[in-house]
């Protein structure tokens, strides 16, 4: 419950290509190799931004690409590395690979970063391939391709403010008028079977997440009804708005209800009652409301069992009376109340749940055979090597052939029955097999 979820695509930048070039100096007809390396491609990095509370921004922006590195240049000059692309995510975002389901990490601290797609390494220029045997190599690597992956971001939205109160006191209605959430409202109890969550945005720029915690009835803390799930959520909220219906329509005693709800909260976790709580007198547009409220206040004042007198505010979600004042006051209380970790969060942290394994495991090469008898080579490592091969220079191609041999591709082909002159294909590039 309360999980905001979105799928995005990230693509890291390709490394810049290495260059094949030679020194051109006066009086030296054929200088040594002077092709520089390509710069590294930009990575895509997720970073916690504490100003964000939801994954809402991703509804409109789902594809993120980092820039490629610059190609190597003549005179041994390196290509410039591309800048990394940062994606701001809210605190508490869990990141997984949408295709494999593997969890890549939990972003739980301010400023925490997670590299989700590493930029490709720059290809080496021909400077690096010179040897005594081959002083003027026409070999250069292309840049390594950037990693591309589909990610699933999940956010267990933590409510800052919890609405509690008996069924039908007007919790969903209040939530719907002050937030963007649009809960169903109906005239029977337990309309809201899953907690509703909404974001309140104030004109002064402050915002907070408010949750309707319905189903809180007597016995909920003992596991009766749906209450217990919602009580668990209450645990996380920092400010509690306790709605008390002043209409008197349901023939209930508002003061009795108020005490019962507090007793439920207390038996679940006594510390909940120590958090700031505003008693919200609801449905103040109803004829008897003022009278009921006056009596309620009197009862409060005369109750000496209370540790302290609660703050009472009046609203009507129908006429919008008092709503703005209530939201401003709530934001003020939030600003004064520190965040705290729940027991579950502490346990997770102690278990060391940070993972940092965004690197792709490379599959070995694969061999298959086409209908026209062409051998097809595949596999992540092999395809990457191929992409990094500069096809314009025979020597670079020969280097690739050596790399394939080194990986055991030749042997594997021979084992499968490949003969001299058979066609072998990688991607859209075809060549002949030579034993
Ligand atoms: N007159 C009046 N009626 C209201 C007001 N707010 C809510 N109501 C009505 O009270 C009834 C119950 O409101 P809900 O918002 O569904 O109450 P709830 O506390 O969320 O109830 P549960 O989902 O059952 O826990 C509905 O018929 C609403 O139209 C108000 O400010 N004034």
TrEMBL record:
Ranges for the Obg domain? Answer: 1-158
Binding site residues for GTP? 165-172, 190-194, 212-215, 282-285, 316-318
Q: Supply the PROSITE patterns for this chain.
A: G_OBG, GTP1_OBG, OBG, OCT
Domain OCT, which positions? 357-435
> How would you classify this enzyme at the top EC level?
hydrolase
User: Is Nucleotidyltransferase set as a keyword in this record?
Assistant: no
Binding residues for Mg(2+): 172, 192
Question: What does the entry give for GO biological process?
Answer: ribosome biogenesis
Question: What are the entry keywords?
Answer: Cytoplasm, GTP-binding, Hydrolase, Magnesium, Metal-binding, Nucleotide-binding
Provide the OBG-type G domain boundaries. Answer: 159-335
Q: Could you say which protein family the record assigns here?
A: Belongs to the TRAFAC class OBG-HflX-like GTPase superfamily. OBG GTPase family.
- Subunit-structure text: Monomer.
What is the annotated role of this protein in its UniProt record? An essential GTPase which binds GTP, GDP and possibly (p)ppGpp with moderate affinity, with high nucleotide exchange rates and a fairly low GTP hydrolysis rate. Plays a role in control of the cell cycle, stress response, ribosome biogenesis and in those bacteria that undergo differentiation, in morphogenesis control.
Supply the name of the protein.
GTPase Obg
């Amino acid at each position: 419950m309360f999980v905001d979820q979105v799928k995005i695509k990230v693509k890291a930048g390709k490394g810049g290509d290495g260059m094949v070039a030679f020194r051109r100096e006066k009086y030296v007809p054929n200088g040594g190799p002077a092709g520089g390396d390509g710069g590294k491609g930009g990575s895509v990095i997720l970073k916690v931004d504490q100003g964000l509370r939801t994954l809402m921004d991703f509804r409109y922006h789902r594809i993120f690409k980092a820039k490629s590195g610059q190609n190597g240049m003549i005179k041994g000059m390196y290509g410039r590395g591309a800048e990394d692309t940062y994606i701001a995510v809210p605190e508490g975002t869990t990141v997984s690979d949408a295709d494999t389901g593997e969890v890549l990490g939990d972003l739980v601290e301010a400023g925490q970063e997670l590299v989700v797609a590493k930029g490709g390494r720059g290809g080496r220029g021909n400077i690096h391939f010179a040897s005594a045997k081959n002083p003027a190599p026409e070999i250069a690597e292309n840049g390594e391709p950037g990693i591309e992956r589909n990610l699933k971001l999940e956010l267990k939205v933590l409510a800052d403010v919890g609405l509690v109160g008996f069924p039908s006191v007007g919790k969903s209605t209040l939530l719907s008028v002050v937030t963007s959430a649009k809960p169903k409202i109906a005239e029977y109890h337990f309309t809201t079977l899953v907690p509703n969550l909404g974001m309140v945005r104030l004109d002064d720029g402050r915002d907070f997440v408010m949750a309707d915690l319905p189903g809180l009835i007597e016995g909920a803390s003992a596991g009766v009804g749906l209450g217990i799930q919602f009580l668990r959520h209450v645990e996380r909220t920092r400010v509690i708005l306790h709605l008390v219906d002043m209409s008197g329509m349901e023939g209930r005693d508002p003061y009795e209800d108020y005490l019962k709800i507090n007793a439920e909260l207390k038996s679940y976790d006594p510390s909940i009652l120590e958090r700031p709580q505003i008693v919200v007198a609801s449905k103040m547009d109803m004829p008897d409301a003022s009278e009921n409220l006056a009596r309620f206040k009197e009862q409060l004042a005369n109750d000496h069992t209370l540790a302290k007198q609660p703050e009472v505010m009046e609203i009507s979600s129908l006429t919008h009376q008092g709503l703005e004042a209530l939201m401003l006051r709530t934001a003020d209380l939030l600003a004064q109340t520190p965040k705290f970790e729940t027991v579950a969060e502490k346990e997770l942290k102690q278990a060391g749940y940070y993972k940092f394994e965004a690197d792709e495991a490379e599959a070995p090469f694969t061999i298959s055979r086409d209908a026209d008898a062409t051998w097809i080579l595949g596999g992540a490592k092999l395809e990457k090597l191929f992409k990094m091969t500069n096809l314009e220079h025979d020597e670079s191609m020969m280097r690739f052939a050596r790399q394939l041999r080194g990986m055991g591709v030749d042997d594997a082909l021979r084992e499968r029955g490949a003969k001299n002159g058979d066609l072998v294909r990688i991607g859209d590039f075809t060549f002949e097999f030579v034993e």
